[in-house]
Amino acid sequence: PGASRGDIRGVVTGVGDATTLQGRVTVRGASIARFANWFTGKQALFDATNDGGFGVVGDLVGVNGAIEARNLVGELAGTALTGDVAYVWSGRRALTAQLIGPKLDITPFLTQRLTIAQLLAQASGAASLGTAPQVTVQQAAIPPLDTKISLRTGELIAPGRRYRNVAAEIEFNSGVMRVPLLQLEGDGGASL
Predict the structure, then answer these.
(1) Which of 113, 149, 169, 183 is the most buried (most CB within 10 A)?
(2) Buried b vs exposed e over 29-53: b needs ≥16 C-beta within 10 Å?
(3) Is 18 helix (H, G, I), strand (E, B) or coil?
(4) Rounded-to-10 torsion of CA 180, 33, 87, 115
(5) Statement: residue 7 has pLDDT above 90
(6) Residues in CB range of 47: below 8 A, 6 or more apart
(7) Residue 76 pLDDT
(8) What local confidence, expressed as pLDDT, does residue 181 receive?
(9) CB proximity list for 17: less than 8 A, separation 6 or greater
(10) How remote is the C-alpha of 82 from its chain's centroid?
(11) Torsion angle of alpha carbons 139, 31, 164, 184, nearest 10°?
(12) What is the rounded distance in angstroms from the CA atom of residue 179 to the CA atom of residue 160?
């Protein structure tokens, strides 16, 4: 899906609601933007023109409407990343991601018309933030996605901007955005 390939190898045990999967997962693709568009169900949310390849491998645990990839080691557009990702589809959908790496280029996910906050709001199905084109929760083909992202990186690259020593936690729950943690240094030496 989304111009990517995945491989899951593991053991399935149990029956019915007690079924579990434990194993390893590998996902590789030529376009992180196309994969993200496929994953979120939004056909043109992410811009693939400045896009790059990706690859990730890690431990996989799936049980009763949820799946978690732990101890992930990967590469995004030539930059090494580590972290954990969990996705719940049973009941209220939720995505949790913790990413750590020396550098992260989010340019493929942003256009000149779309800010970081607007991107996260659209991907999670939250309400409007600003004037960028968007897909509202009512228009979405899939239910809203509660999202929690924790990011630690030495350099964060966005269109026309670079931030250093970034530590951020961003949450979207029921259409409400919270930022419990945001630390960064801008190009001009300003710190937040």
Answers:
(1) 149
(2) bebbbbbbbbbbebeebbbbeebbb
(3) helix
(4) 20
(5) yes
(6) 33, 108, 109, 110, 111
(7) 81
(8) 93
(9) 64
(10) 13
(11) 20
(12) 23
User: For residues 132, 137, 143 and 144, what is the CA-based torsion angle, rounded to 10 degrees?
Assistant: 60
CA dist., res. 44 & res. 50, Å (int): 14
- Hey, what amino acid is at 169? E
The answer to whether the beta carbons of residues 43 and 2 sit under 8 Å apart is no
Q: What pLDDT shows up at residue 123? A: 56
The tokens of 74 are what?
């990967």
pLDDT at 171 > cutoff 70: yes
Exposed e or buried b for every residue in 150-177, given b needs 16+ CB within 10 A? bbbbebbbeeeeebeebebbbbbeeeeb
Of 2-11, 38-47, 139-148, where does the model show the most confidence? 2-11
Amino acid at position 80, single letter: A
Give the tokens for residue 90: 């049973």
- Look at 113 and 25; give whichever has higher pLDDT: 25
- H/E run at residue 118: helix 116-124
